[in-house]
Input
Amino acid sequence: MSPSPSSAWRTAIAVPVLAVGAVVCAADSLRLSNKHQHDMSSACRYLDVSGAQFVTAYAGTGMAVLAVLLYARYLTNSRHLSGGRQADAPSRVTPSHLLATVSTALAAGVLLVGGVAVWAAHDQQAEATANAGRPLCEGAARSAL
Output
Protein backbone atom coordinates (compact mmCIF):
# COMPACT_ATOMS: atom_id res chain seq x y z
CA MET A 1 0.00 0.00 0.00
CA SER A 2 1.45 3.33 -1.00
CA PRO A 3 1.41 6.25 1.43
CA SER A 4 -1.21 8.90 0.97
CA PRO A 5 -0.48 12.63 1.10
CA SER A 6 -2.48 12.88 4.34
CA SER A 7 -0.29 10.25 6.04
CA ALA A 8 2.82 12.18 5.00
CA TRP A 9 1.28 15.34 6.41
CA ARG A 10 0.38 13.61 9.70
CA THR A 11 3.94 12.34 9.98
CA ALA A 12 5.29 15.83 9.28
CA ILE A 13 3.10 17.25 12.07
CA ALA A 14 4.08 14.51 14.55
CA VAL A 15 7.78 15.36 14.24
CA PRO A 16 7.56 18.89 15.76
CA VAL A 17 5.15 17.70 18.44
CA LEU A 18 7.65 15.02 19.49
CA ALA A 19 10.55 17.48 19.26
CA VAL A 20 8.80 19.96 21.56
CA GLY A 21 7.95 17.14 23.98
CA ALA A 22 11.59 16.05 23.96
CA VAL A 23 12.74 19.61 24.75
CA VAL A 24 10.29 19.89 27.64
CA CYS A 25 11.32 16.52 29.09
CA ALA A 26 15.04 17.25 28.72
CA ALA A 27 14.65 20.64 30.42
CA ASP A 28 12.63 19.10 33.24
CA SER A 29 15.17 16.32 33.68
CA LEU A 30 17.96 18.88 34.02
CA ARG A 31 15.83 20.86 36.48
CA LEU A 32 15.26 17.72 38.55
CA SER A 33 18.99 16.94 38.47
CA ASN A 34 19.81 20.40 39.82
CA LYS A 35 17.09 20.03 42.47
CA HIS A 36 18.57 16.69 43.50
CA GLN A 37 22.02 18.27 43.94
CA HIS A 38 20.48 21.11 45.98
CA ASP A 39 18.51 18.68 48.17
CA MET A 40 21.65 16.64 48.85
CA SER A 41 23.58 19.79 49.80
CA SER A 42 20.78 20.93 52.11
CA ALA A 43 20.50 17.53 53.79
CA CYS A 44 24.30 17.03 53.93
CA ARG A 45 23.82 13.41 52.92
CA TYR A 46 23.51 11.34 49.77
CA LEU A 47 19.94 10.95 48.54
CA ASP A 48 18.44 8.59 45.99
CA VAL A 49 17.49 10.04 42.62
CA SER A 50 13.76 10.50 42.18
CA GLY A 51 11.91 8.28 39.75
CA ALA A 52 10.65 11.41 37.99
CA GLN A 53 14.21 12.27 36.94
CA PHE A 54 14.63 8.86 35.33
CA VAL A 55 11.21 9.07 33.64
CA THR A 56 11.79 12.52 32.16
CA ALA A 57 15.32 11.65 30.99
CA TYR A 58 14.19 8.48 29.22
CA ALA A 59 10.98 10.08 27.88
CA GLY A 60 12.86 13.02 26.38
CA THR A 61 15.43 10.75 24.77
CA GLY A 62 12.72 8.41 23.47
CA MET A 63 10.71 11.26 21.96
CA ALA A 64 13.81 12.65 20.26
CA VAL A 65 14.63 9.22 18.77
CA LEU A 66 11.04 8.79 17.62
CA ALA A 67 11.04 12.25 16.01
CA VAL A 68 14.18 11.43 14.02
CA LEU A 69 12.76 8.06 12.94
CA LEU A 70 9.45 9.62 11.90
CA TYR A 71 11.34 12.22 9.87
CA ALA A 72 13.12 9.41 8.01
CA ARG A 73 9.71 7.87 7.34
CA TYR A 74 8.38 11.23 6.18
CA LEU A 75 11.24 11.60 3.71
CA THR A 76 10.63 8.08 2.39
CA ASN A 77 6.90 8.75 2.00
CA SER A 78 7.41 12.11 0.33
CA ARG A 79 9.92 10.65 -2.14
CA HIS A 80 7.52 7.83 -2.91
CA LEU A 81 4.66 10.27 -3.45
CA SER A 82 6.81 12.40 -5.78
CA GLY A 83 7.54 9.41 -8.01
CA GLY A 84 11.12 8.91 -6.87
CA ARG A 85 12.23 12.48 -7.49
CA GLN A 86 14.14 14.19 -4.78
CA ALA A 87 11.42 15.65 -2.60
CA ASP A 88 13.87 17.99 -0.92
CA ALA A 89 14.88 19.84 -4.09
CA PRO A 90 14.51 23.62 -3.70
CA SER A 91 11.43 23.73 -5.93
CA ARG A 92 9.73 21.04 -3.80
CA VAL A 93 10.23 22.49 -0.31
CA THR A 94 6.86 22.76 1.35
CA PRO A 95 5.98 24.27 4.73
CA SER A 96 5.44 20.80 6.17
CA HIS A 97 8.84 19.69 4.88
CA LEU A 98 10.55 22.76 6.34
CA LEU A 99 8.76 22.34 9.68
CA ALA A 100 9.70 18.66 9.87
CA THR A 101 13.33 19.38 8.95
CA VAL A 102 13.79 22.14 11.52
CA SER A 103 12.06 20.04 14.18
CA THR A 104 14.30 17.08 13.42
CA ALA A 105 17.40 19.23 13.78
CA LEU A 106 16.06 20.33 17.17
CA ALA A 107 15.29 16.72 18.13
CA ALA A 108 18.80 15.64 17.14
CA GLY A 109 20.24 18.23 19.50
CA VAL A 110 17.88 17.17 22.25
CA LEU A 111 18.93 13.57 21.64
CA LEU A 112 22.43 14.52 22.77
CA VAL A 113 21.12 16.41 25.81
CA GLY A 114 18.77 13.52 26.62
CA GLY A 115 21.64 11.06 26.48
CA VAL A 116 23.54 13.19 28.96
CA ALA A 117 20.43 13.44 31.18
CA VAL A 118 20.05 9.64 31.22
CA TRP A 119 23.74 9.23 32.03
CA ALA A 120 23.54 11.90 34.79
CA ALA A 121 20.55 10.23 36.45
CA HIS A 122 22.30 6.87 36.53
CA ASP A 123 25.59 8.45 37.66
CA GLN A 124 23.89 10.31 40.51
CA GLN A 125 22.08 7.16 41.61
CA ALA A 126 25.30 5.12 41.50
CA GLU A 127 27.06 7.75 43.62
CA ALA A 128 24.20 7.79 46.14
CA THR A 129 24.19 3.99 46.34
CA ALA A 130 27.98 3.77 46.75
CA ASN A 131 27.97 6.38 49.53
CA ALA A 132 24.79 5.32 51.36
CA GLY A 133 24.98 6.28 55.02
CA ARG A 134 27.97 8.59 54.59
CA PRO A 135 27.61 12.29 55.30
CA LEU A 136 28.08 14.65 52.37
CA CYS A 137 29.26 17.72 54.29
CA GLU A 138 32.46 17.97 56.36
CA GLY A 139 30.63 19.49 59.35
CA ALA A 140 28.15 16.63 59.36
CA ALA A 141 31.02 14.12 59.44
CA ARG A 142 32.57 15.77 62.49
CA SER A 143 29.28 16.04 64.35
CA ALA A 144 28.57 12.36 63.66
CA LEU A 145 31.77 11.38 65.53
